[in-house]
Amino acid sequence: MRFRMLALLALAAAFLLPRTMMAGSISFDLTVDEHGGTAPPADSALVTVDLTSPTTATVTFAGENVGGNQYYMTEAFINVSGTSSIASVTGTTYTGATAAFTTATNQSLDSYGQASYEIRDTNTHDNDSQIVITLDATGGNTWASASNVLTPTTGYNPAYYSQGFDAYVAAGDSGTTGYAGNDTEDLAGYLAPAPEPPSLLLLGTGLLGLAFVAFRKAKASGLTLGI
What we know:
Elements: H1 2-16, E1 25-29, E2 32-33, E3 45-53, E4 56-63, E5 65-66, E6 69-78, E7 84-93, E8 101-108, E9 114-121, E10 128-137, E11 167-173, E12 182-189, H2 198-220
Antiparallel strand pairs: 1-3, 2-12, 3-4, 4-10, 5-6, 6-9, 6-11, 7-10, 8-9, 11-12
Helix pairs in contact: 1-2
């Protein structure tokens, strides 16, 4: 009886935990080529969002190696859910050196719509293999999970697409110099937030109720429970 009640309590707690307690990491490729071309490949840029606290997150852009060609980025854009500020931006150039960046707010790139931030390397010939953006939620804003940090843009050109984009980037093949001027293309992608199903809350509440019933029965039978 004691084991059963503890198990029910543990299950109920897992389902009733705030979403922030279950926050983690998500990744998605930028797969939408603005011009419908074939260069660079659609999986040449990867975005990873890590939620480290309800008010702190990092967004990492990584140029990927496709078919033996390393891809680099000249600038990156993100659209953040709710109010926020950029705490820091770090990155690595094609030579492995530390990159330097400028940031701007409420920027857009062609048809992808308006994003919260634009991050651009201060030297256009120091194209980056990685860009890491650290975000702080402001004004009482919080993020429930990693998938809630970014949100699709608005104001995109519906003649191209019917969906806004969480992130987009200008990326290109390094060639032999590391300069992303070869086959440079704008790529975008999104991972729509997945709302927590209300059924999880109901299930957690039900399990908690079962645990309470088990406790009352055990108490009525005179069983001593050490928790």
